Amino acid sequence: MNDLLNSLSSEPYHLNLDYLGSQNEYQMSSAGVYLGGNNTGILNNPTLKRFDLLKSQLIIIGITSAAILKAVVTLIFDKAVLEPTFCLMYIQLFFDLNKKLPPFPSDESGCREITLKYVLLDNCQKTFEGADNLQEEARQMTAPEQESERKDKEKLIKLRTLGNIQLIGEIFKLRMLSKNIIHGIVKEMLIYNHKCCLAEENVEASWQLLINIGKLLDKSQDSTENIDVYFDCLKKLSTNPRLAPRLRVMVCDVLDLRANNWVPKPILVL
Fold this sequence. Notes:
By secondary structure, the chain is mainly alpha-helical.
């Protein structure tokens, strides 16, 4: 995942809002970026019609600098990874905006131009690479009075991890991400660290990614060798007693899916 893109040198902007409203205005300050609106913001109740309106508003209000672009993309990204039900709408929004918005000069002199795609992939990379540190922080919360906070933190980490992986899969399907990066992600979760691959989040994330885009990877001749390695690893996991039964079932599901040429088995209705 380190090859996803070069690290941005500018500091991230912190948003002082949790919705995008309907007023066509924005304010910038040292504290962050504010996109004006009301309490019934479009992102609080997403629908296809509302996303079309949101896309128009984001263009009308004027995303005119790298700073504003980073703020807007980060805001939508944070919503997207926590709301997997609407993942397809969020990724289509990113895709459409990426085609319409120009690249902007970097805040740092001598750095590459900043595009929506670049900012989006940077968010994906930081979320993927930062998950282990967050999990370690949660494991350090061992005091009895921290139990409730630790459980909430673990749930949020898992939700963001799986949401990010789903988003990455959809980005790949829109050809905004290369196969090499996808292979690097799968290897990071399944192969490079055997202990790590037994983590619930990594097993679920690998399952989710392969269910989503495994067929596309398997069709590519230059990916066959990698895919075979992944599935050899999954076969071992499917019988590993250290893995929770629920996770072994998930692993078997993706093994069966590939064995059936990526055609889901019909659901029997009793």
